[in-house]
Amino acid sequence: MMRYGKFILLAFLVLFVSCLELPEDVNLPAEKVLSVSALLQNDVAEQRLYLYRGGAVSDTSNPDIFRVSGADVRLSVNGLTYNYTESDTSKGCYVLKNFSPQGKTLYRLIVNHPSFPQIRTETLYPAIQDFNWSYFFDSGGNLHLSWRKNAYCAGYRVDMYQWKYGFHNGWEEEYFWGSENYYFTPDTFLIIEEKALLHQNRKVDLKFFVFAVDKNYYDYSRFRTYFDPLDFRLVDFGNFSTIENGLGYFGSVYRDSVIILRND
Amino acid sequence: MNIIKQTLIIILISHYILFAQKIRIYGQVKDSLTAEPLIGVNIYLCDGKTGTVSDGDGYFYLSFENSQSDTFSVYFQYVGYKTKEQLISGTTSFLDVDLQPVSLELADSISVQANRFRNEIGLSYQSFQPLTVLNSAALGDADIFRFLATQSGISFSDDVSNRIYIRGMRSDKLLILLDDFALYNPYHLVNISSAVDVGSVKNIELYKSVYPVNQAGRTGGMLKLYTKQGNAHHFNLDFDVSLMSTVLRLQGPLGNASYFISLRRTYLDFLTKLVDEEFPYSFTDGVVNITFKPGKKHKIVLSGIASFDEFLANFKEHSRWSNQAYGFNWKYYPSPRLYFHTNVSYSHFRSSYNTDSLYTNNAINDLSYKTNLYYHFDFLKTTLNAGAAFHSYGISFQSAEELLEILNQDSRVNQYDLFINFNTTLSGRLKADLGLTLSHYLRFTRPQLLPLVRLQYLFSNSFKVATGYARKAQYLFTINNERDILPPFNIWRALDKDTGPEISRQLSFSASLKKPSLDMDLEIYYNFLERIVDYNRKYLNQEDALFLANQGESYGLEANLRYYYTLFDLELHYALSRTIYTMYGKPYYPSFHRLHKFDINLHSKSYKGWSGSLHWVAASGRPYTVTKGYYYLHHYIDMVSPTVFASPYYSVINSARYPAYHRLDLRINKRFSGHFKLYLNIINVYNQKNIFYYQFNEDKKSASPVYMLPFLPTLGAEFKW
Asked: With contact defined as beta carbons under 8 Å apart, do B199 and B238 qualify?
């Protein structure tokens, strides 16, 4: 046995040394990381982009103090460049006024800030098309609603829907129907029972929205559902990012709606 | 002169060949009190080189040349029994050997592992007596898996779960067999204990890697449990009450047969009802074995296990799961050299989780047929083992939960295996196992060739080295990666063409020294996980792959020392290991990985009815993913106005470790008579605060440590009639 003592000792030392290495944590400290929330939309007066820096675990819970101002934010499309300007009233909120995104178009975003690495990201705006709404009430008063599936450029297909119903007078008193007010679904129809269409036993007007989103925002929404650390999860931890050198998303959405008037 | 020398040598050799007698002895070794066959009994001659061990039914076959005398002695040695010397004369002998167990008092303190005879290839192999498990400190009931975690090379995740991780392999890579049928999720609530009552088991065999070719289907090791066949002479009754459950064990003769039945149930739900309270959880399990001997050459064993768990959080939320496995074994010995073993079994795990509106149903069943042939050749003392196996797996998972419905499946897939193995003695010192399995899983076009080579060289009667290589394949896996989750959600899934089979290559080398009161061994291993399948942790939409084929490797060193002293047996185990998996091309430590693990096991001998055991473990902390902070994102829930959410910001996966883990457990037994025993278990004697995990606080931005088990004493009692 002793003859092999040196070999055993050597093997032990080699193993011992090789086992000491730990995988390197290459993720920057939270304070050094920019997070971006930006969504290009078809029916808004101004496009908005929010910049935050990350916070350490012991930091305060007030999100406003993590807003990052003083960034240079540029959107480029088809050789043209547009500059976002920081809102005077909301620090860390950058706006681009009077800008309407076009279907099947690639938009590139560059964010420069002296304290953070440069961020580059892009979104492919969904193909805009008619949702081809149709609906009817059956004899039981149940609503049957259908629409055409929305196909995206780049071959990516996803459908995302929302509906609301409200009173007829200008929609100021909108009331969300059900506990969920949006759905991701591959379905192209919806059947709502009559009793669910009543508010205080009165028939009310209905307004339904259907969305077409790009892959970035769709993935972010799924991530938000899947990665809640307090919930049961199949998956391990991950930081969400569709952008280089930072966290968050730069996504886009096309929204359409239909109003069904049926006020008593 | 040379011609004379050569002539003399030829004459001497001829004399040896002509006059040396070929001796064959065979038979069965049993317990003298119960007639229970004894597994792994050392059977050897006084030369120290010739020997064998008894098989799973206590049978053995030994052939050798004898030119020295007409009579010779054969020794039968087994831990917990008096060594028997039997005088043999003649060339072929059938031996029906009864070994006498040591006294009941001593039986309280048996701790020595039943190590195989030094002439057997014991590479990466250990055998344990259930009595050792029963007399080790335990949380509630004695548990096989928790006991195995006190051995080297076997890691654990935390105090609550009894999942074990052998040589860097996930828990689903361990083939768990009970009487040759596979068990899938044999765990009770939160994996707190196994569904197999240790007192129903007569032998525990563990292959950490390079397990024999007549079993297939896992890329890691194999755990074989044998149920008791029952006392063929007398009726016996045991009754055991622990903190967790009560267990009743019955055994006795049944005409020409014997039976063993155990029933175990938790009782807290009954007790709490007495004070008008509700305890939401209960389990029941049982083991049955009926053994017939229709003739001297036949043996039929019907055995099974059933376990039922129920968790009723309230009327709207309840969960149930069960293991049921039944086997039919026919063993036929037409001649001393030939042995057939045919097995038909059905194993089923089923679970359901229901709320008032949602459901999740999870099930796997395995219908198997296997036949084995063993033949002993005199040439090179070779034992041939050949056979075929068929498995039909039915897997079903149906969930209405949004997070789980992507895993819905309902499939059946078949697997065919052919195997052959030669166990041969190439010289007096060199033994070899050469085996091959041809395994065909019908979802893949190409069958897998799975070779096995094991070599052992005996330097002396006390020192040997061994090495082995094996390639293993696995076609079913659980999707929960390293995460220990509740058994109902431990989802087995059949692999398909997208990922291919899981494949591992295993290599190990061992050196062992055995002295009368001292065993030392050292083993070095390397497991290359050529393909290991993971749930895609970044799965977000249907265009993403649900499962990914990744790689990994694990290597390390295990050193064991066992010292058998008059008053106590002492075991020291040290394991150094490194396990790295890759995910998305980046390496990481799996969450069960412990760089160092050191175990001390001490079992005292009985003195005036007192006995005890102690286990101390010190191990590196587990890797975990650090919450480095948090970041804010806007989420357009209604797609109109954004809401700000904080999300945790993590480090690279498992790039940090919890503080080192250490804990001392103690067990004290006091036997008052042959019929009654009291025992005290103390878990975490010095109340070490080992970190279980960091729990996110409600703000989702900070985390606080949650500790594992505190100082926890429990009392139990055992009755025997």
From this structure: yes
Nearest to B663 by CA among B202, B83, B139: B139
Residue among B541, B555, B651 whose CB faces A219 most closely: B541
Tokens of B249: 């064990």
Candidate from A23, A158, A209 with C-beta closest to B639:
A209
Give me A75's structure tokens.
Answer: 């959107």
Please give the structure tokens belonging to residue B538. 């970044």
d(CA B623, CA B640): 42
What is the per-residue pLDDT for B694?
A: 81
Would an 8 Å CB–CB cutoff place A109 in contact with chain B? no
Cα A204 from chain centroid (whole Å):
31
Q: Cβ contacts (< 8 Å) between A29 and chain B: which residues?
A: 628-629
B290 DSSP β-pair partners: B259, B302
Burial of B420 (0-12, 13-18, 19+ CB in 10 A): middle
For residue B486, give both structure tokens: 């509740």
Contact (CB, 8 A) for B42 and B51: yes
Residues of A in contact with B403 (CB under 8 A): 225-226, 231-234
Q: Please determine, for residue B263, whether its predicted confidence score (pLDDT) is greater than 70.
A: yes
Question: What are the pLDDT digits (tens) for B272-298?
Answer: 888 878 888 899 999 999 999 888 788
Q: Does A2 touch chain B (CB under 8 A)?
A: no
Q: Tell me whether residue B160 is in a domain.
A: no
Give B539's contacts in chain A (Cβ within 8 Å).
Answer: 226, 235
* Beta strand pairing call for A34-41 and A247-260: parallel
Find chain A residues with C-beta within 8 A of B522's C-beta: 8
Instruction: Work out the minimum CA distance from A201 to partner chain B, whole angstroms.
Output: 25
Closest Cα in chain A to B622: A22
Tokens 């769709």 sit on residue: A218
Strands B42-44 and B51-53: antiparallel
- Is there a contact between B629 and B649 (Cβ–Cβ < 8 Å)? yes
CB-CB neighbors (< 8 A) of B631 in chain A: 30, 33, 35, 52-55, 239, 247-248
Residue B100 CB neighbours (<10 A):
12
Domain boundaries, position B399: 204-622+658-720
A229 vs B contacts (CB less than 8 Å): 648, 696, 700
ipTM confidence: 0.82
Q: Is the pLDDT of residue B532 over 50?
A: yes
Among A68, A72, A69, A70, which Cα is nearest to A111's? A72
**What residue type is B414 in one-letter code?**
N
Q: Find out if CATH 1.10.3470.10 is the number for domain A30-127+215-252.
A: no
B384 and B419 in contact (C-beta within 8 Å)?
A: no
Minimal Cα–Cα distance from A212 to chain B, Å? 11
Of A11, A176, A211, the CB nearest to B639: A211
Q: Is residue B510 assigned to a domain?
A: yes
Question: Are B540 and A226 within 8 A, CB to CB?
Answer: yes
Per-residue pLDDT reduced to its tens digit, A44-59 = 889 999 999 988 776 6
Closest residue in chain B to residue A164, using alpha carbons only? B638
Q: Is B4 within the bounds of a domain?
A: no
Q: What is the pLDDT of residue B291?
A: 93
Q: What DSSP designation does B719 have?
A: E
| DSSP letter, residue A238 | -
Does some domain include residue B386?
Answer: yes
- Reported as half-sphere exposure (CB side, CA atoms, 13 A), residue B221 has a value of 25
* CATH number of the domain enclosing B108: 2.60.40.1120
Query: What is the side-by-side strand order in the sheet with A80-83?
Result: A80-83, A72-77, A106-113, A116-124
Question: Looking at B116, B146, B165, which one is the last position of a domain?
Answer: B116
Fold assignment, A134-213+255-260: Immunoglobulin-like (2.60.40)
Among candidate residues B183, B79, B194, the one with its CA nearest the CA of residue B131: B79
